[in-house]
Specification:
By secondary structure, the protein is of the alpha+beta class. Helices cover 47% and strands 18% of the residues.
Length: 640
């Protein structure tokens, strides 16, 4: 690699690159590293030069390229940060500082030191994303030259690449670095498996190229009558991605690699959808194998149409359709944003890096660097699912996430007040795990608050952090006990109680004995057409004034309307979900659900539901009474 190669590459995409700056940075780095060699035996300057060239492949600005040339100067030579500031200014100096390892800390193991260094780089990148881009290029070049190290060091570096840096490249949308880094790491970690898969790919390559050419000709023929211009190529299959699919789907190489993969690149979004229609008119699409990442981009900015069709020889063909800009972003990720949108920060750019801002917040709650890295793996590096709010907003979560994780991802207050959820229109318990494409509606209560038991349910660090924060705060400041509010009048329409000699009286259920369907009851008429209902065995019946008229009352056998049931119970994690599950198991159509705390120990859960009759209602009440912690079940307000 020569400096002239880097300058040529830079001139190919920058209109007015600062070549003088690049030459000065190279000369300074070359002098600083004079006499130093790498383990490969080459002069040390070859490393920063290659790092800079990798970034030039991503079409980064000349400031970043200059910083890449200087990135090891402060760490590995006698020059200081002040020297970089004096010669190149604060902007480049800050990028170099972000790349410089932390000073050795006392009593810190190599594992802890390494974890702290990674944390430093990632957190520095929150302030300037170019730091992590330089670090990725640095790691990629190290992976390319890894063979000279002893096996233990190769394994350690490869593990970091696979578990930390490749996932970061994925989150930033830089596929070109992600794929290469994964394959290089996989080669070190499982060399025999790597060689076997690579050998099989090479053996079938010629046959696959012929098949791709045949498919291209068919599509080109269909496009002759249109004005759509496009470029059709075979899509490279990466060794590690094939291995991952084999593991996930428990299939052989032949079953996975048998899919022919094509990529179609066109000039605008409208042509993407027109090409999709043309492809589907030629070959039969496979149901549930279509994804529209143009309308709903991934969090790492990836956009494309994905479909799988049955091709000309009855074999599946994977096809991606995208514009040139989408393809650049798919390969270069956040780096391509500067090419198409400009170098300055804007709302769109900040939104794409929202996950890094969240890292900055969450790291404050991590006890040490190893916990921080664990948090990264769970929240940001696991496979993703895309879920939706009722209004259609996309909420991205790790694959293992559940209802509470969703609530906290939308808003902290929504999570704190969550009592239940509907997923795709159906009530689910708080422990429910979400799937890709789920539409989630969070149900809240004004006086609800997080429970320590929630920490056993949530998967994401954000949710756990907010729950811990609430618990810590309330331990310092005791929660005020909620005074039991005055009971709402329990009024039922005449259709549920039949009163002899009265037409549609106002029914009032006594608070002393709270009669429920199935109890033997007695009624007493009051002024203004009101009737009080008591259980026959209620002690208050004997004390009722003799001037009140006793009336004949009975439960009506066929209800068939909306009833409200209230459950008074001990407040414990999972109670609300258990009640919901009990109702749902009895084929009960629930219209509304709510809960409110009664002090610190108890809760009142209310459910508006449609019953099929008196027997159904009686059965539900008996089942609810058997739930652990339930004190009372009674009828609340209903509507006809």
């Amino acid at each position: 690699m020569q400096l002239s190669d880097l300058i040529k590459k830079l001139k190919a995409y920058e209109k007015k690159p600062d070549i003088t700056l690049i030459k000065r940075a190279y000369a300074f780095a070359e002098k600083a590293h004079e006499g130093q060699t790498r383990a490969t035996g080459e002069f040390y300057i070859e490393h920063p030069l290659n790092v800079a060239y990798i970034l030039a492949d991503l079409k980064l600005d000349d400031i970043t390229i200059a910083a890449a040339l200087l990135h090891d100067v402060v760490e590995d030579t006698e020059y200081t940060q002040k020297d970089i500031i004096n010669n190149f200014g604060k902007e480049i100096a800050n990028l170099v500082e972000g790349m410089t390892k932390i000073k050795t800390l006392k009593n810190l193991s190599r594992e802890d030191y390494h974890a702290e260094t990674i944390r430093k780089v990632i957190l520095a990148s929150v302030k300037d994303i170019r730091i992590i881009l330089i670090k990725l290029a640095d790691r990629l070049h190290n992976m390319r030259t890894i063979s000279v190290f002893r096996e233990e060091k190769r394994q350690r570096i490869a593990k970091d690449a696979l578990e930390v840096y490749a996932p970061i490249a994925h989150k930033l949308g830089i596929a070109s670095i992600k794929w290469e880094m994964e394959d290089l790491a996989f080669e070190q970690l499982q060399p025999e498996v790597y060689k076997e898969i690579r050998k099989k790919i090479q053996q079938s390559q010629k046959e696959r190229e012929k098949e791709i050419e045949k498919i291209k000709k068919i599509i080109d023929e269909e496009l002759k009558t249109t004005k759509i211009s496009c470029d059709i190529t075979g899509r490279p299959k990466h060794i590690y991605s094939i291995y991952r699919k084999m593991q996930k789907r428990s299939k052989s190489f032949e079953e996975i690699y048998d899919l022919t993969a094509l990529r179609i690149i066109t000039d605008n979004v409208r042509h993407c959808y027109e090409l999709l229609g043309i492809v589907h008119s030629i070959w039969t699409p496979i149901p549930k194998e279509f994804d529209d990442y143009i309308a709903t981009p991934k969090s790492n900015m990836y956009q494309s149409l994905h479909t799988v069709v049955i091709g000309p020889i009855n074999k599946p063909i994977e096809i991606q359709i995208r514009t040139e800009e989408m393809h650049a972003i798919a390969e270069q990720g956040i780096a391509a944003h500067w090419k198409y949108k400009g170098h300055g920060s804007d709302n769109e750019f900040d939104q794409k890096l929202k996950w890094m801002m969240e890292i900055n917040e969450l790291q404050k709650d991590s006890e040490d660097a190893k916990e921080f890295l664990k948090m990264l793996h769970i929240d940001f590096f696991e496979d993703e699912i895309f879920t939706f709010t009722p209004k259609g907003k996309v909420i991205e979560l790790p694959k293992s996430a559940g209802v509470l994780d969703f609530a906290y991802a939308v808003h902290s207050d929504l999570g704190n007040k969550c009592i239940a959820a509907k997923v795709n229109g159906l009530f689910v318990p708080l422990r429910a795990t979400l799937k890709n494409g789920d539409r989630v509606e969070i149900i809240t209560a004004k006086n609800q608050h997080p429970s320590r038991d929630w920490l056993k349910i949530v998967k994401t660090s954000k949710a756990a952090s907010k729950i811990k924060k609430y618990i810590t705060l309330t331990q310092k400041v005791p929660i005020k006990s909620f005074k039991k509010e005055e009971e709402i009048k329990k009024e039922l329409e005449a259709w549920i109680i039949d009163v002899d000699s009265m037409s549609k009286p106002e029914i009032l259920f006594s608070r002393c004995c709270r009669p429920i369907p199935g109890d033997k009851i007695v009624g007493f008429s009051r002024n203004m057409g009101k009737v009080n209902i008591h259980r026959n065995d209620c002690t208050a019946v004997k004390k009722i004034d003799s001037d009140r008229k006793k009336v004949s009352v009975r439960w009506v056998d066929s209800i068939g309307r909306i009833v409200e049931i209230k459950v008074d119970a001990e407040n414990r994690t999972g109670l609300f979900a258990e009640i919901l599950n009990t109702l749902i198991a009895q084929s009960t159509s629930i219209k509304h659900a709510n809960a409110k705390p009664i002090g610190n120990q108890f809760v009142e859960c209310s459910f508006q539901m449609e019953t099929s009759g008196l027997k159904h209602l009686q059965d539900l009440i008996q089942r609810l009474k058997k739930i652990n912690g339930v004190r009372h079940v009674f009828i609340g307000n209903v509507s006809s």
